[in-house]
């Protein structure tokens, strides 16, 4: 079933008013996902603190948080986070997650295209990097479509919920 044809999809930058829905999404989609490094604590921060974080990201020149909405439900996001330092402020780390029911329908490609266009035209970033589990072949394929290259493998760098030590791949794209 193609859920994306049944609803109106909107992609935009996150704003402080998205805090409650982003926290809900984090609890329901991010925390249970064994493909991401997550922290249940982050899902329990106060809504006001999340709203302030979203305001800071929105105002930042080198940070981006895109959100994808199906009608009024948050169904995915893409975050590019760059530190506020002279030494690494030109490097953004990318993270993306799509709600389970909307995966493999092109939403990841849409978010990646929007975000990387922003990097190329509106930011000072010169490098975007990400970490992906070696077992997550669909994600690797998506990143390769956007000219990310594998820079190395990190054996035993991620512990699954079952306690299995997994290999993570570092991928990056230069701008």
TrEMBL record:
Alphabetical list of PROSITE patterns matching this protein: GNAT
UniProt xrefs under SUPFAM superfamilies: Acyl-CoA N-acyltransferases (Nat)
A family per Pfam: Acetyltransf_1
GO molecular function, one term: acyltransferase activity, transferring groups other than amino-acyl groups
InterPro entries for this protein: Acyl_CoA_acyltransferase (IPR016181), Bact_Acetyltransf (IPR050832), GNAT_dom (IPR000182)
Chain ranges of the N-acetyltransferase domain: 9-175
Domain of life: Bacteria
Keyword line: Acyltransferase, Transferase
Transferase among keywords: yes
Record-given protein name: N-acetyltransferase domain-containing protein
Annotated organism of origin: Lapidilactobacillus dextrinicus DSM 20335
